[in-house]
Amino acid sequence: MSKKEIYISVDIETAGPIVGEHSMLTIGACLVYQPEVEFTIMLQPISDKAIEEALKVSGITLEQACKDGLPPTEAMSNFENWIIKNIPEDSTPVFVGLNAPFDWSFINYYFLKYLNRNPFGITAIDIKALFMGATKCCWYDTKSSSIDRYVQPSLKGDHDALHDAQYQAELFRLVYSIKLDS
């Protein structure tokens, strides 16, 4: 018998695109089917390297993250504890993201570097790929704006990690419920 899967929507904001070189600045997460069960945290930077455009997206500065963030080990421990607290003992957490390869790569790096383990394991569900499979569209049409037009969510993304995690949870629920004609 397989374990029950608990889908967790995760979004991050970073100082740039390179894992290990650029810092993960915030994490937002929620249970996909209970988005009010939420987690958010700011992390202290691991380097002073940043891409100005990446910082503009979230509006977070490295100085703000240094001041308001937690050390990465503490932040990742808090995230792991939240995951453990919010899934039944006989369940497995499943990472869900919009462009999951990007977000998961940072989460995986931080979990392994600072805790020597990743409660999500080595896999993630990408909403873009799920949408492509559900609708048989081309990759270009998996942008969030295209998905929005198709499933019409009530929420919108705003580059706040928690808000985006909740928006992604809604997208996942809507895309997962698409019924194809046989």
Write the layout of secondary structure elements.
Elements: E1 4-14, E2 24-31, E3 34-42, H1 52-58, H2 62-68, H3 72-85, E4 91-97, H4 100-115, E5 125-126, H5 127-135, H6 144-151, H7 161-176
Parallel strand pairs: 1-4, 4-5
Antiparallel strand pairs: 1-2, 2-3
Helix pairs in contact: 3-4, 5-7
Structural features, described:
This is 3'-5' exonuclease. It comes from Acinetobacter corruptisaponis. The protein has 182 residues and is of the alpha/beta class. It has helices at 52-58, 62-68, 72-85, 100-115, 127-135, 144-151, 161-176, and strands at 4-14, 24-31, 34-42, 91-97, 125-126. Helix 4 links the parallel strand 4 (91-97) and strand 5 (125-126). Helix 3 (72-85) crosses helix 4 (100-115).
Compose a concise summary of this entry.
With 182 residues, the protein is α/β, with parallel strands linked by helices. It has helices at 52-58, 62-68, 72-85, 100-115, 127-135, 144-151, 161-176; strands at 4-14, 24-31, 34-42, 91-97, 125-126. It has one domain: Ribonuclease H-like superfamily/Ribonuclease H (Nucleotidyltransferase, domain 5, 2-Layer Sandwich), CATH 3.30.420.
